Amino acid sequence: MKNLRFLNALVMLFIGIMVSSTACAQDAKQKASPPATASGKVGDATIIINYSSPSVKGRTIWGELVPYGKVWRAGANEATTVTTDRDVMVEGQRLPAGTYSFYAIPGEDEWTVIFNKTAKQWGTQYDEKQDVLRVTAKPRQADTMNERLVYDVKNEGIVLRWENLEVPVMVQAAK
């Protein structure tokens, strides 16, 4: 009887180890491009960016992994979203308060930055007919290499940084 209890306990321990190791393996797999959030104030407006943050992993990002001239989901997995609680001016154009999916068309010298009204979607389900606003921004060399995609919200607006590039998008409080 004692041997049977011991054997049952051993089997239960083994099953527990297997289940937890499988869960850990799935967790590690899900974190290849972990979710991230950037938030801050631009004037009186609070801006929140939710995105998945992929890594460079030794790859050439711009022009290869992310091709020039094609719509990019500006992150990984689900579409990156930008939420503003007040109307703002993005590169001089009005963006009403709300939550938008955020896409870009990278170029070597200029980017098209897109705010799309379908916020909750997989990143590759982009529909141009749902665009609320398109503006242009100038990419520039980053001061440091960024292994992971990072967004910042600053007084001047939004900055996307990844690899050796950063893309500032001017945002101001709407009047």
Short description:
This protein has 1 helix and 10 strands; from the N terminus they run H-E-E-E-E-E-E-E-E-E-E.
Task: Write up what this structure looks like.
This protein has 175 residues and is an alpha+beta fold. It has 2 domains: 30 residues; 140 residues, no CATH class. 17% of the residues lie in helices and 45% in strands. A 6-stranded antiparallel sheet has the order 1-2-3-6-7-8, with no helix packed on it. β6 and β7 form a beta hairpin. The termini are far apart. It comes from Pontibacter lucknowensis. It holds the Pfam family DUF2911. This is DUF2911 domain-containing protein.
Return Rg in Å. 21 Å
The number of domains is: 2
Structural class: alpha+beta
Fraction of residues in H or I helices: 10-25%
Number of helices: 1
- Uncertain segments: none
Order of helices and strands: HEEEEEEEEEE
Main features:
6-stranded antiparallel beta sheet; 175 residues; 10 strands; signal; 4-stranded antiparallel beta sheet; 1 helix; DUF2911 domain-containing protein; single chain; alpha+beta; DUF2911; 17% helix; 45% strand; 2 domains
Task: Detail the topology: elements first, then pairings.
Blueprint: H1 2-30, E1 35-42, E2 45-52, E3 81-84, E4 88-90, E5 93-95, E6 98-105, E7 111-116, E8 131-137, E9 140-154, E10 157-173
Antiparallel strand pairs: 1-2, 2-3, 3-6, 4-5, 4-10, 6-7, 7-8, 9-10
